Amino acid sequence: MPVIGYVSRTEHFSAAHRLNSPRFGKCNHANGHGHNYVVETVLRGPIDPITGMIVNITDLKQWLKTAVLDHVDHKNLDMDVKFFKTRPSTTENLAVFIWMRLAMAMPDRSLLHKVVVAETPKNKSEFCGEGLTQQDFDQCVV
Ligand SMILES: Nc1nc2c(c(=O)[nH]1)N=C([C@H](O)[C@H](O)COP(=O)(O)OP(=O)(O)OP(=O)(O)O)CN2
Ligand SMILES: [Zn+2]
Questions:
Q1: How many helices (H) and strands (E) does the chain have?
Q2: Quick check: CB of 36 below 6 Å from ligand 1?
Q3: How many domains, the chain?
Q4: Any idea which residues carry the catalytic annotation?
Q5: Gap between the Cα atoms of 58 and 60, Å rounded
Q6: Of 64, 84, 83, which Cα lies nearest the Cα of 19?
Q7: Among 98, 7, 9, 95, residue whose Cα is nearest residue 44
Q8: Residue 35 near residue 74, CB atoms below 8 Å
Q9: CATH, residue 70
Q10: ipTM tops the 0.85 cut
Q11: Among protein residues, the one whose CA lies closest to atom 28 of ligand 1
Q12: pLDDT (tens digit, 9 = 90+) per residue, 96-116?
């Protein structure tokens, strides 16, 4: 029986956004603003006794690049990413978006445990895939 472990990869991206409602205060400013986002992705699963890996982090790095980072880095989230045309680009929604994009890129999405997105050193959000429906995945387009 293999032992169960956790492995993670952290990436960074820079993007502009605006929380488009008066109740968001300064985040609603018409000029928008930017963040240097930090994204931690955590996988959980059996450690292969031969390779010593849950997944090869080189593969995880590639999935993150093509499924997520290429679509958000140096972008305006609200204008350039279709998913955020119909919902606010909050840290919570970003974590959901990244979770779904990464899950869809992985050969075995059951290994995806957690996505943590930090918008600033003070503000971060975590998502573990709870409550998602097939309709959510269908809407997770870039
Ligand atoms: N629940 C959420 N609330 C807020 C979010 C969010 O994603 N989820 N986002 C924002 C704004 O994007 C805003 O940019 C946050 O930045 P700010 O308040 O400036 O950041 P700090 O708290 O780190 O800065 P202070 O210097 O402490 O004001 C707002 N709310
Ligand atoms: Zn912001």
A1: 5, 5
A2: no
A3: 1
A4: 27, 74, 119
A5: 5
A6: 84
A7: 7
A8: no
A9: 3.30.479.10
A10: yes
A11: 122
A12: 999 999 999 999 999 999 999
